[in-house]
Amino acid sequence: MRYIKFIIAILLGALAIGYASYVALRPPANFEDRIAFIQTLADKGVARGSWPGIMWAVVRDGEIAVTGAAGFADIATSRPMTSTTTMPIGSITKVITGLSAAQAIHDGNLDLDRPLDQTLSIAIDWPDDHPCTLRHLVTHTCGILDTDEGYDDAGYHYGSTTHPDTLSEFLTRYLAASGDLYDAEANFSDNAPGTHYAYSNVGAGLTGQTISDATGEPFATYSMRMVANPLGLSGFWGHTLPVPENGATLYTRDDAGDFVALPPYGLATWPDGQFNASVHDLARLLSAIINRGALDGRQAIDPKVVDLLTTPLIEGIDGMSAADDKIGIFWSYETLDFGLFSFKGEGHNGGDPGVITLMYRIPDTKDGFVVMLNGEPDGQIGLLHAVRLLHAISTIPPSNP
């Protein structure tokens, strides 16, 4: 399941490293020295094989303060990773989908508490007659579950960035009793909607379908028009195009631990994880959210839309990691525990084969950061590099303490 896989892996690896390595986490306090330290860690991670390439950015006082990169977008051709290299952003995609939902709500096309069956063009066979609302979908409390056989095995398609199923076709296969992937017990929780948090990529895909049906516009087109284009993002929906010339190759590892290029792949539930963007794009997205839609001296998105995205809808219910964790429209207020350190962040992270991404605002500040890798760290040294870098970038002293 995307989103939590990376967090668990880092936690377990960091715990194995032990407290003796904690002193290595102490970065310089001065901002300029901290930035240089982060770049050094990024470069060392490449040199020691912790990751093939990395992009990172720091937002300070609501503005993009610095972007950086190290390593390779493609190892075979020695093409360097840069701050404008694009790659799939994993589950940070849900922030794009969340802003699209917020815009549709603001425009009166959607209602958080209207039963989905009153909007959807596809039929869903909810068990126990517990139909969900949009509020349940965007807070992961609908009760739709991602299964290994139905979601992981059938939802990923290797060899092309486009999945053979359209979004509505896959959702029908998974959520309608007539579908070959339907399993009332496995695909749905026993909990009533709104009572239990269970992270669901299928539910996020269903959100994209709901927005499309409510607005009468293909979701990819609507989200580009309402979110990506107003923010001036160079990003695009990965299922609509092959990997571009400036796109990063994604990597897994062989048995010896060496990087091996992954073939292109597509997601059936693409509104949950297949937006492609650069670290500069995500820094712009984070800056706009921090500034309630203002960007480049203009109001790119209505502040009320951003408020809809970020206002918590649930807090600390069963299934969430911490009692004070909250979530708005796919916008999380969460505690990230890496064993040797933890921090509270507002935003999202993502993980897919060959993809690790984090985008967080530091609570009660106008600061934040983005980190993107096109391959996963491996072993204790690789995990320590990742933990050190995340600690350094997430603890930069606030611009206005």
TrEMBL record:
<dbReference type="InterPro" id="IPR050491">
    <property type="entry name" value="AmpC-like"/>
</dbReference>
<keyword id="KW-0378">Hydrolase</keyword>
<feature type="domain" description="Beta-lactamase-related">
    <location>
        <begin position="39"/>
        <end position="380"/>
    </location>
</feature>
<protein>
    <submittedName>
        <fullName>Serine hydrolase domain-containing protein</fullName>
    </submittedName>
</protein>
<dbReference type="InterPro" id="IPR012338">
    <property type="entry name" value="Beta-lactam/transpept-like"/>
</dbReference>
<dbReference type="InterPro" id="IPR001466">
    <property type="entry name" value="Beta-lactam-related"/>
</dbReference>
<dbReference type="Pfam" id="PF00144">
    <property type="entry name" value="Beta-lactamase"/>
</dbReference>
<dbReference type="GO" id="GO:0016787">
    <property type="term" value="F:hydrolase activity"/>
</dbReference>
